[in-house]
From TrEMBL:
It comes from the Bacteria. The chain crosses the membrane at residues 27-55, 61-83, 104-132, 152-173, 185-204, 216-235, 256-281, 301-324, 357-375, 381-398, 410-431, 437-455. It is found in: Membrane. It is a multi-pass membrane protein. This is Amino acid/polyamine/organocation transporter, APC superfamily (TC 2.A.3). It comes from Megasphaera paucivorans. Keywords: Membrane, Transmembrane, Transmembrane helix, Transport. GO terms for cellular component: membrane. The keyword Secreted does not apply. GO terms for molecular function: amino acid transmembrane transporter activity. Its main location: membrane. InterPro entries: AA/rel_permease1 (IPR002293). The lineage of its organism: Bacteria, Bacillati, Bacillota, Negativicutes, Veillonellales. Pfam families: AA_permease_2.
Amino acid sequence: MTKKIFRTKSINEFISETQKEGGMERVLGTFGLTMLGIGCIIGTGIFVLTGVAAADYSGPALVISFVIAAIACACAALCYSEFAAMVPVAGSAYTYGYIALGEFWAWVIGWDLILEYAFAIGAVAIGWSGYFANIMTNLGFALPVALVKAPYEGGIINLPAMAIIALVTWINIMGVRQSSAVNNVIVAIKLVVVLLFIALGFGHVNPANWEPFMPYGWSGVFSGASVIFFAYIGFDAVSTAAEEVKNPQKDLPRGIILSLVICTVLYIIVSGILTGMVPYLDFKGQAAPVAFALQQVGYHWGAAVVSVGAICGLTSVLLVMLFGQSRILFVMSRDGLLPGVFGHIHQKYKTPARSSLIIGVITAIVAGFLPIGLVAELTNIGTLCAFMIVAAAIIVLRKKAPNRPRAFKCPFVPLVPILAIVFCGILIWMLPEVTQIRFIIWLILGMFIYFGYSYNHSIISGGLFSGPMEVSNRKAVSQDDHSTKE
């Protein structure tokens, strides 16, 4: 059993599967990928979590928290970029783990990503609902509490959260070209809104608000970094679009790195201005800190515009997260680790329509009936764990397949991957203990599913339910990097 669960899958094998008829349509370039990344990165983090992190953890040193989280993400992004250019296959970290570390670790990463995307989608949809309800109230059309709150929060159902997930699911099913076009428009709007905040807020920065700069010490700064790490989740979603990219060897690394750089610069500027405009303690309990800061200095119209921008920002996050989740499930199904329904490609739209629909239904239920705190807290730890495994996989594959052609090479290996592992490990350590315990329970549940279903259905491991012809055919392709120089 040990040999089977750690058996790797070759790069040639993965790539050959993408070349079969009935696959997804290749329509994305560097611009589309960069916008996809920005669409997923700029959202909840900048519009919601900045206030929480400043008031409860970092204070004005929120800028340093963003830098620390950015360093961890930058190291991970370089690792992702090498893999994405070398293995232009949907599945992101799951695929990379399968190639370098074997099926078991691939399952662990895939299970982490399911946790990350599913709960993040629910959290973002609930946040979207809050902004939407606020805008409707300001327009004089207050929505009943029973229809905008979960049962645990005094309501019956969060209807707007479910409605936006339904809409975004439909857009994703219609095709990546349509999803990308909608995302580009939304990203343009929210970038204008972020730049508007910078322009309006810059002249109202009071340096006195930056004192004390580090009220909670370095411990608070690192805790703040672990909280606002949610703000950077999204650049990895770019790699899930690999099978829909026109020139993946060049476009994927560019899209990943450009989206992360652009968002990091904007985050640092916004967090500095935000804590300079308003004393950090005033952000306590504020769910819309950017709009709140503008209101405090008299820009009520600016606060209204930012609220609209937040709606757009959260919509694009949902769009990309639902997109990424469906592609990861698609690849796991193709490998036999999940049921075949997740691997079905719609004949007309060339998208994993059934997978997208199932995700939409599940996440809509989560968003409609659970409170935001419960659905959001596990997102960061799942992502950090996946980043650590991808970084380790880079080191392993450099040893196992040193001569494999690499269109993009992560610099300073093994230093950069080790830094990614160390930084992500520190951020995991700084998360609340209850989050760590719940994550362990999630992993245990994943082990039951793997050994109860996935191990017996896995194609590459020749499980009990894998067809012998299918396994034989794949063996013919799997004489790969370990035995040949390319």
